[in-house]
């Protein structure tokens, strides 16, 4: 019912024309005074109601509608109060803003996740929904919030037709960010600081990032064509992931702000980019804990599956230790759609309600469909600006009767067909190259002189956006519709033609970022065409050669998966008899494809590629690359004996023989020392570089074998070291040479001369910088740091393994990264680092190893993890490795040694006598045939086996053998204490006290127990201070000095609690409770705290 504004009583209903004319007269004076058209219309509506005249949809039905309209005029005057320029709109057509409608709850969810990230959590949010539901618009709205909040925003978009470009979206995101910094002249000092910090954090490895991010090269002042790809990198993709993490860390710390990475259209993401995001989210992906990283992604619902790399990585939230939130967007409801139409037309929702109702039923609320339909209605004149009324008006009858398909894709395709042929052709050309292209690139193709002119028409139609000099489809559905205007077989021929035309631009071009972009685009076009599109036989080889070139470029950018796809495509263009007619091209394509297959862990493809090269290569030297990849694959898959056997066989064919092992380790080390005695350190460091390609390849085989042999053939490993050093001195230094010297230092230290071993370890570190490559830095640090721990304070050595892990990842050496991570967590445990921190590091290492299926290392690491979890007291269970576990435990001595020591250590710490004795005997039975190198765990094992031995010797009537074992342990610790009092003095003192206790020399034992406690305290080994107090307490308890024993038990409990060994505290409490009842001096609640 209408509302009465001018009195009561019934009124005679006037005709519509009469009413309109009368109201127009009433408000005309207001319009003449330039009063807002919206306000005049509202007054006219109110007068109609007052006069009892209803104007259909424009009528105010009650006072609340008047109030709502007035409130909108106050709240959003720029939309609802101020008049629009209808003359301009009649020329430009309907315009859409970037307002997000009806997504407040979803936006709040994303903001909450972001706030948690800023507070220190790791978080990722993915927005998904059907095409056209406004996913990207919501993400961009959040981006405004992140920037206004002081954050850093990196934004990129995946493209269905650009999946062959390495790290396309990720590279674009970082490159655009660096470009923004370059364009801002006010940030000169900040750019200099950024360049300094990147160089400090990454060193020469920044070159590899610059290959991916050209604008970063400009910031760093690098010339890209002088950057040489490091062929020695074992896993360049992992290296790049690590470098990107460090880059994010530098950005975050420099700006003291959280970093948000937004990637759109994840359904077309390449696995390399997703793995990089995964690495950013990993707990250890960033070098510090001060970096806040937030990931936001969008993907189209219904176009991903469980095999997609996105889901393999991002769904495994436990692995990346990050919280995941999914935000689903449905189509708009009718109320929200009316808000969108209302604000777009700048009319009250009351006035647009019936129009919105019709549009809703035709589009089902799909935002893209709605916007395209409104544009179409405007173009057809069914929705038009009225100059007289100063507002939009529409023909409701014709809009209702307009036919529409149910699917937005069909609607878009039908809409495109209504465009002029030349505009359709221009849109098809643009669609062939992805979601966007630079105008200069489009124009340079020479495909159509008027292509830019026709694209401008598409811009006017709202189909394409022009931002700066870049044309970008307004939505990926529009790109798809334009692409599908031609059938598939015609598209293939056109793609191949475009690829050939673009490749002509590469002739004589240098290695620049611009040429790389053209190369990838050209080759992608050729491959989209495929061999069936070739019409000239000479083009088969052209396509194969260009794929080879693109694959090499992708390898430089560290995307081995994309590189493999290029090499595989290149092979597909080869015709019959290609090995005879194009031998060099065939050999290079197959060899590099094999390298990529190894890096991608695609062992099936690797095996086939190796077999092809071995069968078809003319010379043995031509097979060396793939044979090296074969030995690497065997080593990575835990088949070390086969890997070593294959390496020995290949070296023999190269004329390099390795002598047998037996008991000649000491003789081999001495022979190496004698060889080096004729050279000073300076002469070694200044030895010429190795240049013989065959010897360089042999060195790579030797370097790969060295690590494997130290694990399973410790007596033979020194012979490999000797050959590395012999070849280095006779043929020059190579990147493998430092490996030989660091292993020599480790072997010498293992044989007892810590000082001389330490000398060669430092020499190896210095040599790293002299050979011009740090590809072996991870291994040098991994095997050198344990020796340093026998000279330098143990706590100081922890940082070296952090550096080793970083160096190994930077060179893509996953094996050495794993070993450094494992050694770091082990040293943390026995350096007395808080157990909760050590627990996190252990979990990080286990996740790292589990993700990469490194079963042997995983089993070793789980032994350490069990120590930590048992000491803390938690229900958490270590991950089960696999069915391989029993077989590995039976055959791998290093794993067996760790397993039995774990049992002995845990049993000893919880005072389980029989188990301690059992596991110690098992451990001692296999300890003689373990690593040839010196590691910290050797000293740890000797220390605890010594303690167990003296305990067993006291308990058994005939314990002389155990007493001798304990004595040998004590003498070993005493000798090591001579090289590092800091690390080993307290351990020697404690073993001395235990032996004196066995010998019933109680007064002397008291002195050494006191020394052990004092030394552990002064050298900051809180866990060993606790252990010394506990063992001394047992000693005093047996002597009958209960008061002293209680004092020491209390102190032991305090220190164990400080260490974080809560379960050990509980165990100690229970023991003391059974001896002293009541136990008044112990706080049981404190002991039980976890």
Automatic annotation (TrEMBL):
<dbReference type="InterPro" id="IPR053159">
    <property type="entry name" value="Hybrid_Histidine_Kinase"/>
</dbReference>
<dbReference type="Pfam" id="PF13191">
    <property type="entry name" value="AAA_16"/>
</dbReference>
<dbReference type="InterPro" id="IPR041664">
    <property type="entry name" value="AAA_16"/>
</dbReference>
<protein>
    <submittedName>
        <fullName>AAA ATPase</fullName>
    </submittedName>
</protein>
<dbReference type="InterPro" id="IPR011990">
    <property type="entry name" value="TPR-like_helical_dom_sf"/>
</dbReference>
<dbReference type="InterPro" id="IPR027417">
    <property type="entry name" value="P-loop_NTPase"/>
</dbReference>
<feature type="domain" description="Orc1-like AAA ATPase">
    <location>
        <begin position="100"/>
        <end position="282"/>
    </location>
</feature>
